[in-house]
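Take a look at the protein record below with the fold in mind.
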Amino acid sequence: VLVWPPNSPDLNPIEPSWRGIKFSWKKQRVPKSRPALEKDWSTQWRDYLQEKLRRLVERIPGNVRWVIRLAGGN
């Protein structure tokens, strides 16, 4: 079990993923309905490279060591 500092997006691998998906999604048209929005987000998530996700998860131990070295400060 890892001790997880509160409000630490640097340790959450999903944060960079959301940023990448939002960035590419903003280049597209604005969905006019909830089903269209859900379809667009599902497509973006499906197309997000799994290799990127794997690398983000693999960085967690190093990020945790970095936070420990900084004693939780930023």
Notes: The radius of gyration is 16 Å.
